[in-house]
Amino acid sequence: MTKIYSLQDENGNIRYIGKTSLSLSKRLTHHLWDVRRGIKNHRCNWIRSILSCGKLPSILLIGEVAGNGCAEEIAWIKYFRDEGVDLVNGTEGGEGSTGRIYIPSKETLLKLSKSLKGRKAWNKGICCSAETRRKISEANKGNGRGIPLSIEHRKKISDANKGNKSALGFHHTEETKLKMSKIAIAQGRRPSAEAILANIKANTGSHHSKETLCKMSESHKNNPRCRGWKLSEETCRKLSESRKGIKHSIEHCRKISYANKGKHRSEETKARMRVGWQLRKNNLPEINCDFEKQD
Q1: Neighbouring residues of 101: CB distance < 8 A, sequence distance ≥ 6
Q2: Among 49, 95, 162, 216, which one is most buried in terms of CB atoms within 10 A?
Q3: What would the mean pLDDT of 205-214 be, rounded to a whole number?
Q4: pTM of the predicted model, to two decimals?
Q5: pLDDT, tens digit (0-9, with 9 covering 90-100), for 33-56
Q6: Which whole number is the average pLDDT over 168-185?
Q7: Euclidean distance between CA atoms 4 and 13, whole angstroms
């Protein structure tokens, strides 16, 4: 429900028509906050004139309506203006989040920024008293804020977010996933399939220059994920243990053979390979052997 209300001066004259979904006391408080923040418009200037006399404007409920109340607000503003009432409303009503929204230009924003520089906030350094904090706490209770969730409620939320079908059944449909993917591509957060294919075609057949290869080699020397990094003996032993018993297929062995053609091993590597072959042939336990490089 939306409340249509009016603000009145000290003599009871109606000067402003508005709408709100809050309580009337909170809406009046928001009007006073706008004044303290230094907002300059017809309504705030009128409220300042009343505050300068040591008085406060009063708020009066006109009626409650279903929906956002834009049409009703427009109708009441027109009615009072046709009756000759001097309202401080800056528009004909109905604007806001449900209607047109005023977007200031860059020049206006720059002027606002310059005018507000050096101005201290009205509530800077003001601490709420214990009584005020207690009232805020009491007001927030029951509004879903500050209320701890039960263990059962937390479990349901956890199961729903994990995609557990047995709990709440919260899953994105294929149609929703497709829409999310299109939005991500439109916003540039994910490349499209066409962009990926175009990138692959553009890079096909390209080769790095010798200078680039040299830079890559230098940067990879201290990278444990790249070649050139010397693994510890413990890591080598673990890798060896994990590889034991793994047999390559004939096709895989053929590919390795073709890849190693033209490559020459050092005498030290050949000696180690001969010892390994002999150990596997005799099915003997592995021994630790040191070899010296032959000239």
Answers
A1: 95
A2: 95
A3: 79
A4: 0.35
A5: 888 888 888 889 999 888 888 888
A6: 75
A7: 16
CA-based angle 78:79:83, to the nearest 5?
115
Hey, how many other C-beta atoms are within 10 angstroms of the C-beta on 89?
Answer: 18
Both tokens of residue 37? 């923040």
Q: Are 61 and 5 in contact (CB under 8 A)?
A: yes
Counting Cβ atoms within 10 Å, is residue 203 exposed (0-12), middle (13-18) or buried (19+)? exposed
List the structure tokens of 105: 């230009």
8, containing H or E segment: strand 2-8
Do the beta carbons of residue 171 and residue 165 sit within 8 Å?
yes
The count of C-alpha atoms lying within 13 angstroms of the C-alpha of 290, restricted to the half-sphere facing its C-beta, is 0
Q: Which two tokens stand for residue 123?
A: 């509530």
Quick: pLDDT tens for 83-117. Answer: 888 888 888 877 654 444 456 788 888 888 888 88
Strands 14-20 and 58-65: unpaired
Strands of the sheet with 58-65, listed across from one edge: 14-20, 2-8, 58-65
* Distance, CA of 60 to chain centre: 41
Q: Is 69 exposed, middle or buried (0-12, 13-18, 19+ CB in 10 A)?
A: buried
Instruction: Name the DSSP letter for residue 150.
Output: P
Q: Which two tokens stand for residue 92?
A: 């004909």
Are 281 and 256 spatial neighbours (Cβ–Cβ below 8 Å)?
Answer: no
Please give the CATH topology (third level) of the domain spanning 2-102: GIY-YIG endonuclease (3.40.1440)
